[in-house]
């Protein structure tokens, strides 16, 4: 069995409890109890619950953007780049379902921390997605479309299963922790890219 550090134990306990009880419904004592550590450890490593929350945000978005940037610099077509980016994001989120669910839910709430995230991490994300869509349109791989609305659709596809995980399990009987889900869901997003974002052969034939 893998041994985890005190710091990791605190983070895992916090993410689990934040998902169950919400950030405001979770106390330092709750986190320490689940992690089996002294409450002083949370102050030592994270300077309290707010610092722990900010660490969760930073950890999620730093790794998330790393996935995007890794694909963004690759010399492939916009279609392939967008598909590869989707693959990396879904794989990352499936590997961290509880953290993903908590973070995506929290960023819907207006707060100073969320505003900072919007002005840093999400601005970088928007730039990357915008560049891919612009390049795809310029190269006549993608349909001429509203890039902002295309990003809205893409973001919805990437986030919906993780925000509404209970709906998936209880209503649709789909489970995020199954390899089948990741494989099947990626197929569906790739179809959306091919059918909605990209020009088909007939459309390409009539472009001068």
Please describe what this structure looks like:
- The protein is mainly alpha-helical and 208 residues long.
- The protein folds into 2 domains: 1-47, Arc Repressor Mutant, subunit A, CATH 1.10.10; 53-205, Tetracycline Repressor, domain 2, CATH 1.10.357.
- It has helices spanning 6-21, 28-35, 39-46, 49-72, 78-95, 97-106, 112-119, 121-138, 147-163, 165-172, 179-197, 201-205.
- It starts with 5 loop residues before the first helix and ends with a helix.
- The mean pLDDT is 91.
Can you tell me the CATH superfamily of the largest domain? Answer: Tetracycline Repressor, domain 2
- Uncertain spans, ≥5 residues at pLDDT below 50? none
Strand fraction:
under 5%
Number of domains: 2
Radius of gyration: 20 Å
Largest sheet: none
Shape designation:
elongated
CATH level-two architecture of the largest domain = Orthogonal Bundle
Report, as a whole number of angstroms, the end-to-end distance: 62 Å
Helical proportion, percent range: over 70%
Strand runs, count: 0
Query: How does the helix and strand content classify structurally?
Result: mainly alpha
User: CATH topology of the largest domain, which one?
Assistant: Tetracycline Repressor, domain 2
The total of helices stands at: 12
CATH C-level class of the largest domain is Mainly Alpha
Order of helices and strands: HHHHHHHHHHHH
* Mean pLDDT reading: 91
């Amino acid at each position: 069995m893998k041994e985890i550090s005190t710091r990791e134990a605190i983070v895992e306990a916090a993410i689990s409890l934040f998902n169950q009880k919400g950030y405001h419904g979770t106390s330092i004592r709750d986190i320490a109890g689940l992690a089996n550590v002294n409450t002083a450890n949370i102050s030592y490593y994270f300077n309290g619950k707010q610092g722990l929350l900010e660490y969760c945000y930073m950890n999620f978005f730093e790794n998330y953007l790393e996935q995007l940037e890794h694909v963004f610099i690759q010399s492939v077509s916009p279609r392939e780049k967008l598909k590869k980016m989707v693959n990396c994001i879904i794989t990352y989120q499936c590997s961290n379902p509880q953290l993903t669910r908590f973070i995506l839910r929290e960023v819907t709430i207006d707060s100073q921390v969320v505003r900072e995230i919007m002005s840093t991490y999400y601005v970088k994300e928007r730039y990357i997605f915008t560049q891919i869509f612009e390049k795809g349109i310029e190269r006549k791989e993608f349909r001429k479309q509203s890039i902002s609305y295309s990003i809205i659709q893409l973001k919805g596809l990437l986030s919906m299963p993780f925000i509404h995980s209970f709906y998936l399990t209880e209503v649709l009987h789909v489970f995020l922790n199954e390899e089948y889900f990741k494989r099947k869901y990626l197929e569906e997003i790739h179809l959306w890219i091919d059918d909605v974002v990209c020009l088909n052969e007939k459309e390409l034939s009539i472009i001068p």
